[in-house]
Amino acid sequence: MVAAPRTLRRRHRDPRPLVRRHPPAQQALDDFAPTGDVLELAAGTGWWTERLTNRARHVTAVDANTETLDLNRARDHHGDITFVQADIFTWTPPPAAYDVVFFSYWLSHVPAEHLDAFWHHVATALRPTGRVFLLDSYREARLDQDRQQRILSDGRAFHIVKRYWQPDELSALPGWHLTPTITTHRQVIYAHGAPAR
């Protein structure tokens, strides 16, 4: 069983067709206005990194995969970015260093045994007035044992963690005040909020 993030094949996929089908997710991020110092977890190839730099003073883009981070770095970003190659499950962000923590298509891959520590790291990374924005794939029912098979381009198959979060689960997340929304076509869920203070 693989508890790691997306496979290379999935992480190299261009998310633009998905976003074009669901513009409310991108509009919601624009309305959220991720300004100041932004931490992007599981930054991948940089499609969202590019959008974050439109408003942020500085973006710290963290990803475990060297290849995808190199693709991100090679993009024509216009903002101030620091790239960090690190395992998000073991990397500890500096405390109270960020105004926003952002992650896309990542929370669904976090195993249950890592959730408390993950959310603790997110809360610790935020400044007192800090906020969080997340988006992920959505379906109306969770998978059996939150597992899904993924097949690489070379034919190898892996079973990975894939938890389809439901709005009531996000809004009831202990220690957080999150407002979840499902897009019109019901394929993307996004949420924004802050730690309970």
TrEMBL record:
GO terms for molecular function: methyltransferase activity. InterPro entries: Methyltransf_25 (IPR041698), SAM-dependent_MTases_sf (IPR029063). Gene3D superfamilies: Vaccinia Virus protein VP39 (3.40.50.150). Residues 38-130 form the Methyltransferase domain. One of its GO terms (biological process) is methylation. Keywords: Methyltransferase, Transferase. Residues 7-22 have a biased composition (Basic residues). Signal peptide: none annotated. Residues 1-22 are annotated as: Disordered. Pfam families: Methyltransf_25. PANTHER family: TRANS-ACONITATE 2-METHYLTRANSFERASE (PTHR43861:SF1), TRANS-ACONITATE 2-METHYLTRANSFERASE-RELATED (PTHR43861). This is Methyltransferase domain-containing protein.
